[in-house]
Specification:
Elements lengths: L5 H12 L13 H34 L15 H37 L9 E8 L2 E7 L7 E4 L1 E5 L4 E7 L4 E4 L6 E4 L5 E5 L5 E6 L12 E7 L1 H11 L9 H12 L2 H4 L23 E2 L4 E2 L2 H9 L1 H4 L12 H13 L2
Parallel strand pairs: 1-5, 4-10
Antiparallel strand pairs: 1-2, 2-3, 5-8, 6-7, 9-10, 11-12
Helix pairs in contact: 2-3, 5-9, 7-9
This protein binds dinuclear copper ion (CUA).
Length: about 350
């Protein structure tokens, strides 16, 4: 068998790598994503058949007329039977084109209606207000009993099989919510509330990405979405609604004191503490998240050190300033953040 040479293999691998994983347009782990994929498949099949037919006619014409030259063209009279066959062929082709376009139009219409009315008779179980900032996501979970509302950032958990309604807002410029495994795109527009419904069909960890260019760090505006079983979701909710506890470990306590007395608390909220800043991600349970800085870094000690020491080096242009902590302060703040499970 002929082996594919690297120049051929690399682009092929790059293309195929997009077909699986936590952020893929081939994903069918949500109701909307499956509908969109079905429509895409229908388009591929119909347009593929027509492409193949047109190519076949093109090559047939080429082979029939090989060696054709105008000066050697015999006087050819069109035989009546050939004329009829040609006319019939044209009618068949026209019918096929109209039929194909009708099939695409009907499939588009039904997919569109299904996406527009996603939950006939089913009330949303979860209601989230998601606000886009340059360049991170603020999430507020709303409940009938407003005292249970809580905030989180850059990481959502939603229950499997249930209807989650997400209200989309923006604090600055237009962003776009896009978790391809679960649903299509929806814009977050300043001064306007959009919404999107998620009905996940498979538990797992997915990745969303801002899909509208929104400035320097647009590419670093990702979102972790975890689809939990109902029991796991209930456990997560119970943990999220808990305020943070004051640390007992001396180093973490020193970090807590630094956090509350210096700039951090002016921008960030940690529920259950005096820190109530509203302009930066809520850090109440930051240690329970998979990533930091809106999906830019995995949530490890090393990442926390790097981020706090030099946020502009990692994500230039973001609103977190250089704080100039000394080594002891840096150790202490990282130790404190790691207690925020
Ligand atoms: Cu937000 Cu791109």
């Amino acid at each position: 068998m002929r082996r594919l040479r690297p120049p051929l293999l690399l682009p092929l691998m790059a293309v195929l790598a997009g077909c699986s994983g936590i952020q893929t347009i081939g994903g069918r782990e949500g109701r909307d994503a499956a509908l969109i994929n079905d429509l895409f498949t229908i388009f591929c099949i119909v347009t593929g058949i027509f492409f193949a037919a047109i190519m076949a006619f093109l090559f047939a014409a080429y082979w029939r007329r090989r060696g054709w030259r105008a000066d050697r063209m015999p006087d050819e009279e069109v035989v009546p039977s050939r004329h009829r066959a040609l006319r019939l062929g044209l009618f068949v082709w026209m019918g096929a084109v109209i039929g194909g376009l009708m099939a695409l139009a009907v499939a588009s219409f039904f997919t569109d209606r299904s996406l527009a009315f996603p939950n006939p008779g089913r009330k949303p179980v979860v209601s989230i207000e998601l606000t886009g900032y340059q360049w991170w996501w603020d999430a507020k979970y709303h409940f009938q009993d407003a005292s249970k509302d809580f905030r989180t950032a850059n990481a959502l958990h939603i229950p499997l099989g249930a209807v989650t309604m997400i209200y989309l807002k923006s604090n600055d410029v237009i962003h776009s919510f896009w978790v391809p495994n679960l649903a299509g795109k929806q814009d977050l527009i300043p001064g306007h509330v959009n919404d999107i419904v998620l009905v996940p069909a498979k538990a797992g960890h997915y990745r969303g990405q801002c899909a509208e260019y929104c400035g320097l760090q647009h590419a670093h505006m990702a979102l972790d979405i975890v689809v939990d079983s109902p029991a796991d979701y209930a456990r997560w909710l119970a943990a999220q609604t808990q305020p943070s506890a004051t640390p007992t470990d001396p180093r973490a306590l020193a970090g807590y004191n630094y956090f509350m007395r210096r700039q951090c608390s002016a921008c960030h909220t940690v529920a259950g503490t005096p820190a109530g800043g509203q302009v930066a991600p809520d850090l109440t349970h930051v240690a329970s998240r998979a990533t930091i800085a809106a999906g830019t870094l995995p949530n490890t000690s090393g990442s926390l050190y790097a981020w706090i020491a030099d946020p502009q080096g990692i994500k230039p242009g973001n609103n977190m300033p250089y704080l100039g902590l000394n080594a002891d302060e840096l150790h202490a703040v990282v130790a404190y953040l790691e207690t925020l499970k």
